[in-house]
Design goal:
204 residues, alpha/beta, Rossmann fold, transferase, EC 2.7.7.18, pyridine nucleotide biosynthesis, NAD
Length: 204
């Protein structure tokens, strides 16, 4: 049985922190592969700043030298009304029925689930395992203990909580803002992606 992590995000653009996070998770959780899952521009809860095609192209450039990193555009192909993490995880469980498939997310998303902001949250939590990365100011243990949904499924293996041990919170938003204002975020994203952004005039 293999171990697979599903890493969903906008990746608008993909940053070095995204890659470092995926690498850290793969190492500490002994994952055989990390599947990068860019969200669709059709989602009504996301306001993206460039096209699906550009984000896919940058992800391919970013992960080409890591044999554990894979790209999947599953959510991009779905109709906007049918894009829910519960359904997405059902899809990956059907593809990898003999493997342990976990959803990788930040502690901020764990808080959102605890607050009832996600559709199909009961089904999502009851049928999946989660790798949760620390975020500044969020106590992951308290988030779980305060939520009836989360704590009642916390069997010791449901949530793998990871404190990164290093404060790296540079976001895609920061990079876009820098580019939009004539800043220089060159070393915050992979060099090939930086060159791609400049070549195509993205985020200007």
């Amino acid at each position: 049985m293999g171990k697979i992590g599903i890493y969903g995000s906008s990746f608008d653009p993909v940053t070095n922190v995204h890659l470092w996070t995926a690498s850290t998770v793969a190492h500490r959780c002994k994952l055989d592969k990390v599947i990068f899952l860019p969200c669709s521009s059709k989602r009504k809860d996301k306001q993206l700043n460039t096209t699906d095609e550009h984000r896919i192209a940058m992800l391919r450039l970013a992960m080409e030298d890591n044999e554990k990193f894979f790209l999947d555009d599953y959510e991009m192909k779905q109709e906007s009304w049918n894009i829910y993490t519960h359904h997405t995880m059902q899809h990956f469980h059907s593809i990898y029925p003999d493997d342990e498939v976990s959803f990788i997310m930040g502690a901020d998303l764990l808080e959102d689930i605890a607050l009832g902001k996600w559709k199909y949250s009961d089904e999502l939590i009851s049928n999946n395992k989660f790798i949760v990365m620390a975020r500044n100011g969020i106590d992951m243990l308290k988030t779980i203990s305060r939520s009836p949904l989360l704590r009642n499924f916390d069997d010791g293996t449901r949530f793998h909580l990871i404190d990164k041990g290093l404060n790296m919170e540079i976001s895609s938003t920061y990079i876009r803002d820098e580019l939009g204002k004539g800043g220089e975020p060159r070393y915050l994203l992979p060099e090939a992606c930086y060159d791609y952004v400049k070549k195509h005039g993205l985020y200007q």
